[in-house]
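Changelog note: in this version the structure field was regenerated for every chain. One regenerated record is shown below for reference.
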Amino acid sequence: MSTSNKSKASALTRVQALIAGTKKNFPNGQFNLVGVSYTTATLVQALQGLVDAFAPVDAAHANVRDTVAALRTAEAKVAPLIRAYTSFLRATFSNAAQLGDFGLPAPKAHQALDTEKRAAATAKLRATRKARGTTSKKQKLAVKGDVTAVTLTPVAHPQSATPPATPAGPAPTATANSGASK
């Protein structure tokens, strides 16, 4: 039988239904199954053994979930300490033997690329820069806009800085054509 929770629950329900149906419909039955003779009591006892086996499995799963949750909590608390201590050890000891005492691998030595790999990397770098259109700072400074035949038109503001003097007489009346002269 499958070990998923849904399958375990359905298997347990199915076996319990078999037991209930057997007790109800065959209270004193005789069965010859898989070459073995069973009575109702022995068949129910065999099926009940399977039902009883589910309880420890469920308890064990619950215990595992609780234990794993406790482990994750402890790891979350100690992980920053381990990272800091590891960094301290790497800064303190550069010797592979001394770091090996703590179970840490020695830092790898930098290996220079051979000429073929360096040439391939340089070609790839240049091709990428060309494809993206990226340039260096000096090249960007050399780029200037090429603008020809630009005429500047001064912007005339409709209001001047000093308002015009208004006569003290009656206010002029607006007519329908007063805005057309502008």
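Spot check on this record: Residues 178-182 have pLDDT under 50 and may be disordered. Residues 54 and 168 are 107 Å apart (CA to CA).
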